[in-house]
Design goal:
It comes from uncultured Sulfurovum sp. The protein contains eight helices and two strands; from the N terminus they run αααααβαααβ. It is mainly α. The protein has one domain. The longest helix is centred in the N-terminal third of the chain and has 27 residues. The radius of gyration is 23 Å and the shape is elongated.
């Protein structure tokens, strides 16, 4: 009996084939690319907001240190809105554009809605304080962070980019 089964398998007559789940064809961005884009966005988007809030709105370092909670709210609210508007228009921030990556809705594969992007960017700032949310990308094959999992979005390489 054992030899007959081996021959059937060898001759491809064995009928029970394993069904493999379809693999995703999305080119997920690597963690190193996402970090480089984050650093680029930090200098291009965050630094001007920091400068305006600290020196023009809060009146300098002393005014900022007196009202830190209000100062950080003045920094993060415009930053979240600016990032959301950039992603809503082109699904890229300046850092994402520099490294040819974009944010997509995992279900549709297209640009996410305004409220989904707003939720994603708000939870990105909140998960930055827990650190765990950002460290997840080093342990996952698709390099998703906590805010990507919560909002069901993904950062992928842009396919139809001009070179």
């Amino acid at each position: 009996m054992g030899k007959q089964r081996f021959r059937e398998v060898k001759q491809a007559k064995h009928t029970s084939k394993k069904e493999h789940p379809p693999k995703t064809t999305r080119p997920y961005a690597h963690a190193s690319t996402k970090i480089k884009a984050f650093l680029t966005d930090s200098f291009m988007l965050l630094m001007p907001v920091l400068y305006v809030v600290i020196y023009f709105i809060m009146g300098g370092r002393e005014g900022f240190s007196d009202n830190k909670l209000l100062g950080w709210a003045y920094i993060f609210v415009p930053l979240i809105l600016v990032q959301t508007l950039f992603m809503l228009k082109t699904s890229q921030t300046p850092g994402y554009r520099a490294y040819n990556i974009e944010v997509i809705d995992e279900h549709t594969g297209k640009r996410p809605s305004f409220f989904l992007l707003l939720f994603r960017n708000t939870s990105a700032v909140l998960s930055f304080f827990t650190v765990f949310g950002w460290l997840m990308m080093f342990f996952r094959k698709d390099a998703k962070t906590l805010h990507d999992l919560l909002s069901n979005t993904a950062i992928t390489y842009k396919i139809n980019a001009k070179k």
